[in-house]
Amino acid sequence: xxxxxxxxxxxxxxxxxxxxxxxxxxxxxxxxxxxxxxxxxxxxxxxxxxxxxxxxxxxxxxxxxxxxxxxxxxxxxxxxxxxxxxxxxxxxxxxxxxxxxxxxxxxxxxxxxxxxxxxxxxxxxxxxxxxxxxxxxxxxxxxxxxxxxxxxxxxxxxxxxxxxxxxxxxxxxxxxxxxxxxxxxxxxxxxxxxxxxxxxxxxxxxxxxxxxxxxxxxxxxxxxxxxxxxxxxxxxxxxxxxxxxxxxxxxxxxxxxxxxxxxxxxxxxxxxxxxxxxxxxxxxxxxxxxxxxxxxxxxxxxxxxxxxxxxxxxxxxxxxxxxxxxxxxxxxxxxxxxxxxxxxxxxxxxxxxxxxxxxxxxxxxxxxxx
Length: 370
What we know:
About 45% of the residues lie in helices and about 20% in strands. It contains 12 helices and 15 strands. Strand 10, helix 9 (about 255-260) and strand 11 form a beta-alpha-beta unit. This is Branched-chain amino acid ABC transporter substrate-binding protein.
């Protein structure tokens, strides 16, 4: 009988030790299927790496050891699906969300998170409207399209040629970025000879490009994703259009190089918010850890989603709580050395001092342009 009581006492201690560890769920949402899944998976993997590393170090909140877990949802790069996914995350009790990829998904989803009192930090959505809604807990770790559009338009008009044609995919991201490019082209002394639009599902651009060809542009700017930019470059070559081509971060990927094949040349340029991975303060070390964990290369957004996750967890640590009502205000005050550089937000929720880098296709890969 004594032995039984001792055994029960030991079992009881074990059970209370288990209960002392609190599970804190963080959500992430991005396209995990379809043509943009490589970018969505990049975001998810950045979140997972951050959570695994914080769990390994050990985090205590309110006197309890915390174990972070990820709930990853597929928003299919679709605004309607994004709101469904956002509601699911809120209903399932996540304490914060890292996502979405596309501005067209992030903006409608942000309303759901705001109503549910759940902080959202996007590692990829660049449309300025996301942080102009006066939601107190909506942030991003990446430069916005005002900064990126200015960089594209100015570089195109001052370095590539003054006669510029502009194409966008009519998503919140594509159209928003193109609007900023148009302003910057004109402010930099360039002339917009054509503005056309397609969709983020299209694969045939010949009629658009034929109309553009008649205007004799020196530069085509495409504002959209890599799944359209690759075929577009092939069709530019097919039509014998001798132009320089520049695009934003949605197509500044390794995937566009594969999709374009021999149609991508040294006349192809792109931009990414932030610094090149090898120029990020924590980039080299992050890349090594990421490759070791996932056996995959960083696409674009993993460092930003890693730092977005860290911003949420650091805010929880500062508030000593995982309760969104208690820690949300602390996100606005974070200031720590991240992979991408110093992570700190301005009054709107935008990353402070968001850099933009221009790249040129050289020797089979993207290299920093002059």
